[in-house]
Write a structure and sequence with these properties.
Largest sheet: 8 strands, mixed
Number of helices: 14
Distance between the termini: 31 Å
Helix content: 25-40%
Number of strands: 18
Length: 433
């Protein structure tokens, strides 16, 4: 008889079905069986595991739709095995991996390789994206149809940005034919130039090349216009500026199919952090000023920004141990993002509640990407995350499951974290006592 798991007395939050109350959740044969909100039935028979979730949030498995797993070709930074272990430890049951690998995931064979590797080694679900253009070079469209049939869930040149507006338009139109959203890394190369940090007071003081917010906002505006012209979904990745939030808010008020995400470092830190010249504070897009941080949080609170993500970007230690100008952009984020968002958005700023946070990590990305995840509806895969929203813990990079340790949050105390991650009915990670 198939294994049955009973998760008892948890605070079940399933935004897709409007559930937000204490109850019992039954998992059977790798699928969600039922939710008993009255806790009146305790099923007997068969092999049964009982998990007491008293005081915990029980929600659909969290989805991070912006992750760099680095395979193929960059396994010194991360692998599918280590990256998905980090995801599980962060409470994520599904990750969407970016195509800027070596070689790039811009063709059906590379997509097939990623899926086959994930089937053998991944602890959580891995959904690949395909490059918008060949080689992520921004010049010639990649074989979108072939990649769709190989299993991609979206198009993106993440890490790069298509500068040619005509090429981007055709990409969005082709993506629409296959029901795929287009995800865009918003960066105008001409405006950004050699910028390595936010253009402003601190770039002037530190003598580092500045990266103006307009370098992001110009492309956000381009994407809004294309989403309207093509009547197709376009998603702006890792928003960082107040101007981007303002543009997105106005466009969404007119019903344009434009969405945006925010990453934890862009609301937890400002460009003042760079005064240490610590390369773990070097991001793409860069950390901005306090006014931008406030605008991003407001955008989350009012529903302008609908998705939370990590932009998990692992790098080797030796790559970061160079001059600030020369270091690669990005940080490892899978194991800290949930704690940061809970600590900042829910507890400190009170911009949203836990139910809204769960929505931004589950049903919202699932709907955008058309995944059969992000819900506890009967019959769907039994991907579940258990969260203790009150648990205080200290970030220790030495304990990371990720192969990389490039984080600016080492030693920070956060409030709230995942304590158990369940994929297809099986516990793949549990917080040790």
């Amino acid at each position: 008889m198939a294994k049955t798991t009973l998760i008892t007395n948890g605070h079940i939050i399933d935004p897709a079905n409007g559930i937000n109350r204490v109850g019992d959740l039954y998992l059977d044969g790798g699928k969600v069986a039922k939710i008993d909100l009255d806790s009146s039935e305790r099923r007997q028979g068969g092999e049964r595991e009982i998990i007491d979730a008293t005081g915990l949030v029980v929600c659909p498995g969290l989805i991070d739709m912006h992750v760099h797993l680095r395979e193929p070709g960059q396994s010194a930074k991360e692998t599918i095995a280590t990256g998905t272990s980090a995801a599980a430890a962060g409470g994520f049951t599904s990750v969407v991996c970016m195509p800027n690998t070596a070689p790039p995931a811009d063709n059906a064979s590379t997509i097939a390789w990623i899926k086959e590797r994930a089937a053998r080694e991944a602890l959580v679900n891995v959904f690949p994206t395909g490059g918008i253009t060949k080689g992520l070079a921004g010049e010639e469209l990649a074989p979108i149809g072939a990649m769709y049939h190989a299993g991609i869930v979206a198009l993106t040149d993440d890490g790069h940005c298509v500068q040619n507006h005509e090429v981007m338009r055709r990409a969005v139109e082709y993506a629409r034919m296959f029901g795929l959203p287009t995800l865009d890394h918003c960066q105008d190369y001409n405006l950004v130039g050699r910028g390595v940090m936010n253009e402003g007071y601190w770039s002037a003081v530190l003598g580092l090349p500045g990266w103006p917010a307009a370098g992001e906002e110009v492309i956000v505006m381009r994407d809004i216009l294309l989403a309207e012209l093509c009547d197709a979904p376009l998603h702006c990745q890792h928003l960082s500026s107040s101007g981007s939030v303002r543009l997105l808010r106005e466009a969404r008020s007119r019903g344009i199919k434009i969405t945006g995400e925010v990453c934890p470092h862009h609301i937890a830190l400002t460009d003042e952090s760079v005064r240490s010249f610590d390369t773990n504070f070097k991001m793409n897009p860069p950390l901005r000023a306090q006014g931008d941080v406030d605008a991003l949080i407001e955008g989350v609170a009012d529903g302008t920004i609908t998705i939370l993500a990590s932009d998990h970007a692992p790098h080797c230690d030796y790559e970061k141990e160079v001059e600030f100008d020369c270091a690669p952009f990005g940080i490892a984020g899978l194991e800290t993002e949930l704690g940061l968002f809970l600590d900042i958005l829910v507890h400190k700023k009170r911009a949203i509640d836990v139910a809204k946070l769960v929505e931004m990590f589950t049903v919202n990305p699932a709907r955008l990407l058309r995944l059969d995840r992000g819900t506890l509806s009967p019959g769907v895969p039994a991907d579940v995350t258990l969260i203790d929203p009150e648990l205080e813990w200290t970030v220790d990079k030495a304990a990371f499951y990720s192969r990389s340790r490039n984080t600016p949050f080492h030693g920070m105390t956060l409030r709230g974290r995942a304590v158990r991650t369940i994929v297809a009915g099986e516990t793949v990670w549990v917080l040790s006592a």
